[in-house]
Write a structure and sequence with these properties.
The chain is of the alpha/beta class. It is built from six helices and ten strands; from the N terminus they run βββαβααβαβαββββα. It has helices at about 35-40, 55-65, 70-75, 85-95, 110-115, 155-165; strands at about 1-5, 25, 30-35, 45-50, 75-80, 100-105, 115-120, 125-130, 135, 145-150. A hairpin with a 5-residue loop joins β2 (about 25) and β3.
Length: about 170
């Protein structure tokens, strides 16, 4: 088990070798699911991104969508999470043809539990927001890898390769 990225002091309930924090989300048909429903059946990719329709988030969504069949074949489910509403996610999913589930975290409760909500800097300004991060959960239901400060380009393949390496 590995941890990538900076060792920033972020309060997180997520630990390698432990189950992820459970949360509820809706699929494209507005059916509710929980992360705990997926544990034990599939490997899971839980990825956090700042905002629907922004350049980096679009690249990341395009790549996970492009590779989705490979993830499905490898019995890996993907859940994307951002502070956007379910309505925004529906539009994003439709425009980008996203085949996997997106979770609305409008009050940043999930991102705070996962330790990915915090100080960000852009063009000399500091603000609070979601830091692009990914958590990988194996079929036993435990977090086996955490990626912090993710670069969108190539991340989908990086995640798929990691899961292949632990099979």
């Amino acid at each position: 088990m590995e941890e990538d990225g900076d060792k920033e002091k972020v309060i997180s309930k997520i630990k390698l070798g432990q189950p992820p924090v459970d949360f509820e989300f809706q699929d494209s048909n507005n059916k509710s699911h929980r992360i705990s429903d997926l544990k034990g059946n599939k490997n899971i990719v839980i990825y956090f991104y700042p905002k629907d329709f922004t350049p980096g988030c679009t690249i990341e969504a395009e790549e996970f969508s492009r590779d989705y069949e490979s993830f499905k074949t490898a019995e890996i489910e993907i859940v994307g999470i951002s502070p956007d509403s379910n309505e925004s996610h529906s539009k994003f999913r439709e425009k980008m043809k996203i085949p996997y589930m997106l979770a609305a975290d409008t009050r940043n409760e999930i991102s705070k539990d996962y330790g990915v909500y915090g100080l960000k800097k852009f063009m000399g300004k500091e603000y609070l927001g979601v830091n692009r991060s990914t958590f990988l959960v194996d079929k036993s239901g435990n977090v086996v890898k955490m990626y912090n400060k993710v670069k969108p380009k190539g991340h989908s393949k990086e995640v798929l390769e990691f899961f292949k390496s632990i099979q």
